[in-house]
Amino acid sequence: MLVQYDVLSMDRHIAMLTDRIFADKIVEMTTDLSLFLKMKVHVLLMGFAASLFALMPAVAQTRSRTIESFTVVGNEPFWNIEINSSGITYSTPEPKKVLFPYVAPLSAEGRPADLLRVYRLRGMTSGTLVIRRGACSDTMSDRKYNYSATLVLGDTVKEGCAIKK
Questions:
Q1: Are 84 and 129 in a shared domain?
Q2: Domains held by the chain: number
Q3: Where among 64, 88, 116 does a domain terminate?
């Protein structure tokens, strides 16, 4: 019986040590996993912060400027663009209008904001609309405008005039 007690005692002692070793290893693994997850979350947060930082100039530009409304007209062939808070609408005499979401315009760095506006047109069709402050005359009516406009849609470049509403 004494021998059996010693074997049982040793068996319990080994089981206790094994449990402790496994428990320590589990804690180590959990700590390693926790550290790995913390590092991964840190890297993700840094990436998110960097992308927010990259967007800050655009966000600041959007906040500092109110949405300006413009009507842009061109002819030969006739085309028209309306810019307002609803979006940027391009139309021609054909029944199909193209609506682009409103995107705050870019301005020339180091120049007055009213001098040049560049709208990036995004949607099924993409393009660029540039509105520049300066005298412009409609070739059909000889009407005078305070802004000239250049529209680039695909491989097509159109010239026109614009009026601020």
A1: yes
A2: 2
A3: 64
Query: Where in the sequence is the domain holding 26, given as residue range(s)?
Result: 1-64
Place of tokens 């959990």: 30
Q: Are 75 and 68 in contact (CB under 8 A)?
A: no
Are residues 153 and 109 both part of a single domain? Answer: yes
- pLDDT tens, position by position, for the chain (165 residues)? 444 545 556 566 566 655 665 556 555 655 665 655 555 544 444 454 444 444 444 443 444 458 899 999 998 889 999 999 999 999 999 878 999 999 999 999 999 988 999 999 998 778 999 999 999 998 888 899 999 999 999 899 999 999 999
Structure tokens at 59: 């966000």
Look at residue 163 and give its three-state secondary structure: strand
Same structural domain for residues 60 and 90? no
- 0.85 exceeded by pTM: no
- Could you say which of 23, 46, 64 is where a domain stops? 64
Whole-angstrom Cα Rg for the chain? 33
Cα–Cα distance for residue pair 134/150, rounded to 1 Å: 13
